Amino acid sequence: MIKEVIVVEGKTDTQKLKKIFGEDIETVETNGLSLNQATLNLINQINQSRGIIIFTDPDGPGKKIREKIINSIDGEVLNAFIVKDDIQKLSKKIGIAEADDEAIKQALKQLVTINFKNKVSITWSEYLDNNFFIKTNRIKITNQMHWSDQLSSKTLFKWLNWANLNVDDIRKMIGE
Predict the structure, then answer these.
(1) Is it the case that residue 116 has pLDDT exceeding 70?
(2) Torsions phi, psi for 52 (to 5 deg)
(3) Which of 39, 136, 140, 160 shows the greatest Cβ crowding within 10 Å of its Cβ?
(4) 111, 104 in Cβ contact below 8 A?
(5) What would the DSSP string read from start to end of 49-63?
(6) Pairing of strands 27-29, 112-114
(7) What is the pLDDT of residues 124-171, one digit of tens each?
(8) Using CA atoms, how far apart are residues 3 and 170, in angstroms rounded to an integer?
């Protein structure tokens, strides 16, 4: 049973989660990129009392929404990720509502905790010196973390710090 409130982009995402987990699952909808300060305040309040799981679509707007929420939250934030390969093959949309049920269940089991937004666990020079920015390494890292392999090098660097991963952690991911 999921005790946290899941932050999703829209009503169809909520409907999908209720179909999979039952009517008791609770969500907050951001209304896509229309996410406003009142909703951010609500999400922050819920995070302080029950905890939240950010579960946005694996596309550009989903990434922007996730980052906006993370940057506005005080304290620990749980994140669930699906990738485009988890979307039903015939779907024209790329979102939680179109994702495979098993992929959604796995995403909500493999949560990534972000609680050190301003902490540096890896420096930019370490990132470059270890060639983590090279596309093949970025893909290995994003696959291990269940993040989109379309993340830019700068975004990956930021997210690695948010996840509090150090050089040794990342080397293990790429098989060194």
Answers:
(1) no
(2) -130, 160
(3) 160
(4) no
(5) HT-EEE---SSHHHH
(6) unpaired
(7) 999 999 999 999 999 999 988 888 878 899 999 988 998 889 999 999
(8) 30
**What residues pair up with 28 in beta bridges, in sequence order?**
7
pTM for the full predicted model: 0.83
Cβ-contact 6, 17 below 8 angstroms: yes
In the chain, the largest separation of any two C-alpha atoms, in whole Å, equals 49
Question: What residues have CB less than 8 Å from 44, skipping those under 6 apart?
Answer: 72, 73, 74
Backbone angles phi, psi at 127, to 5 degrees: -60, -45
Q: Is the pLDDT confidence value at 59 over 80?
A: yes
Looking at residue 169, its pLDDT comes to 94
3-state class percentages of the chain: helix first, strand second, coil last, to nearest 5:
50, 10, 40
- Helix count (H) and strand count (E) of the chain? 8, 5
Domains located in the chain, CATH noted = 1-115 (3.40.1360.10), 118-175 (no CATH)
